[in-house]
Amino acid sequence: MDYSFNAIEAKWRQLWQERKTYQVAEDHTKPKFYVLDMFPYPSGAGLHVGHPLGYIASDIFARYKRLKGFNVLHPMGYDSFGLPAEQYAIQTGQHPAITTKENIARYRQQLDLMGFSFDWDREVRTSDPSYYKWTQWIFKQLFNAYYDTVANKALHIHQLIAQFESEGNTNVTAVHECEQLFDAAAWMAFSPAEKEGILQQYRMAYLAESWVNWCPALGTVLANDEIINGVSERGGHPVEQKRMMQWSMRIKAYAERLLESLNHIDWTDALKEQQRNWIGKSVGSSVQFAVKGADLQIEVFTTRPDTIFGVSFMVLAPEHPFVAQICTVAQTNEVQAYQQQAMLKTERDRQADIKNITGAFTGACALHPFTGQEIPIWIGDYVLASYGTGAVMAVPCGDQRDFDFAKHFNLSIPNIFANQDCTEAAYSEKDAIIANSDFLNGLDTKAAMEKAIAAIEAKGIGQGKTNYRLRDAVFSRQRYWGEPFPVYYQDGLPHLVEDALLPVTLPDIDAYLPTQDGEPPLARAAKEAWSIHLGERMEYNTMPGWAGSSWYFLRYMDPHNQEAFADPEKLAYWNQVDLYIGGSEHATGHLLYARFWTKVLYDLGFITFDEPFAKLINQGMILGKSAIAYIGPDQKMYSLDMLPASLDGFREVRILIDLLNDDDSIQLDALKAWQPQYTSQEFICNAHGKVLVKREVDKMSKRWYNVVTPDALCEKYGADTLRMYEMFLGPLEQSKPWDTKGITGVHSFLKKYWRLFYQNGHFELEDSQPSNIALKTLHKTIKKLTDDLDRFSFNTGVSSFMICVNELTEQKCNNRHILEQLTILMAPYAPHICEEIWSKLHPASAGILNAAYPVFDPAYLAESSFDYPVSFNGKMRFKVTLELSHAIEEVKDLVLARPETHKWLEGKTPKKVIVVHGKIVNIVL
RNA sequence: GCGGAUGUGGUGAAAUUGGUAGACACGCCAGACUUAGGAUCUGGUGCCGAGAGGUGUGCGGGUUCGAGUCCCUCCAUCCGCACCA
Question: Cβ distance A176 to A252 under 8 Å?
């Protein structure tokens, strides 16, 4: 009987749904296991074969854990706020909610085809008011929190206010930006506006000015990737750097904890390293340099206070607030011109372009704090306003960028290292002895640092300091399709909307664009359009994409709760995510923010764990294979093998891969029908009358015409085949190109597996005691499979099944026990076919996931002899089968006595013979 | 520029702890069955060589009895870099 996968899969999809096979609830009699996928943004293009890769892996693992007796939480939802829907709305006027709903429906349809064991009753959508009500609620907790450096955790802002009221802020131990000192009386005398202004400098969620990419023509802020070569991607308008009042999150307060607890989670070293670098801890010192003839102190942060005597100039970021004040009249034009120029560059451009050294002299000088020497103050765009203090003390002999700058502008490069030459390049190693440095002479870096910091502190011009590259996270977006803030303004001050009035829902507006005067789209909403309208106005910004995704894993635990973001008992039961699978592109965005919010919620007592994802695996990207055709100067399309030696005047065009035959030739009629420019295309065919294309690996994307969707493959080969093939492609973590051709191998394998159960066209199994050889095959497979699953090696798992089925076919095995055990092993990978077989084996069973996972017995694999590979100088020459009972010395003698050994010895005496028992023999000549 | 990853047959890959390189598939070649094949089955297939054999894991060095695996240098490709998600 044939393996009719379409019928089988449709049947089980329906039965699983009817029986609610994958619904879970808290069950204290079983150990819990939480398997999570990074939820998708539902784009208009639907899913391509790359998207489900991680979902298949996590589904296999979730099913495996269920078979192992765990209560498995395996949910799915949608990260459904985002720019693409908004852009589409701008173009068409269609409300993003409609687009989003349609896209989700399409995603769901595609996901259902693949047979995932998601508990869909727990679905969440970040754009659903019942969900973002709680995103707003969490924002409120952040607004009402500050970070106490002694308790080393976030505390409620009431505690801070109480302290202000009783003693002012002189003894406050909080992370803040408040430079003003006040006592209790002064605090009590402040106006509400003054009080709030001060509190903003302590709150975890606060309003402050930040630098943004402002596009005046579009009236909006742009992301770096919306800017191409300094102009907006849409429309090509100029973009400039601008300060703007924005909501921010004080994630910097958590820098040390985010760094430290990386040591306690099971993520790859690569990913942890990326987060460590992102947080960018550096230990050094702050130093103040007085400006000559002005009452100004320029503060710098340096990681090398030991090199302070090597300072020969200073560089400020072009945006540094002092620039205008210190610039001399003579230099004003040059400096302003340079500022203009720098303003047009994005930060990334400024960092990437180190070949073009640019800068301008302000005309002003600073005074060296120890020598009193005059130090010219320059501005240069290699210094970033957003890192450190936006100013550096330049030590050209010790820092390559400073060195290059000095060379370019002909500034002096004093050498402060004994026995190091600094005429050609800076010496940035930390192993030199300091010289020409007054009281630091003769010290090594470490000792010099300590002494320099002590001197700096003694002089009162700075202190030892730890700096982090991590910046506070900007939390406002001037967009429509995001969470509204639970905030209104009264007398110009932000106030929170009370809990009972949440959620503040998105008001309808007439166009999804900024207003004429550059206000965000929500400023267009009429008062009545808001679900709540308080004070003078509501907050017009919306939250960023990462707001909803920073806590969604918690909502899955209790998705319909209307009283809390989740029931504390359920939070305690499901606890951390045990396995999280998703793309590595989220390494420093989502994964850091989710850790941050988790820690805040932990500090405030809402959850009992302070890391969200105990174990994390990154799946690689599936790439597409584009089809590239060549069009000659004569406008004819040339077959790849008909191209002339010189391609002058030729252009490459990408054509839809669906228009190709298996041999990479174009279906010419289909091409002509595809796009109007090809309607009367002429071709230069090869000798076989074909037009071949070149295949090239690109990102899988609509724009390269190389997208392969799961739908058609499910239809043609079945979901089980597709699931196994995606796993078979290679290691989960690696990127790899998609090639549909290979899928037939996996499909044949499933057919071969199916045939094992059939004799003369009937489903028929024999019940006798299984043979030793079949038991050996089975147990070898059990061992390999469990080992592979434990290290998340899904591709080798599929190979093991193939080997097993090949061997059982060879053995003509039709034994019930063997095939039943194999079926349980395979159920996580190919759930439909295994469920179908299981239902034939056990018609009364509630489903294969209730079966017991096979247990490995090493007794079946015991061997008495081994094929020793015999190598000469490490090259394997022949094999000798020997009993494993032979000791090492006996093996050596037996091998040396062999005639083959004599042949390879070529009359020489072995210098050494190495025998590793049960592994190898190596004879050294 | 900074940070991370990856380089093994024609292709996707395997080799889990330093111990037989290329398992398992795709493709290709030869054959069987068939009216037919995008079905099924059998055999072969890293490269050079008629063969013996030589050679081979991005390049170049090193450690070791033994290196795809460890160390150093270089090269190439991909991903991220704070408002794409």
Answer: no
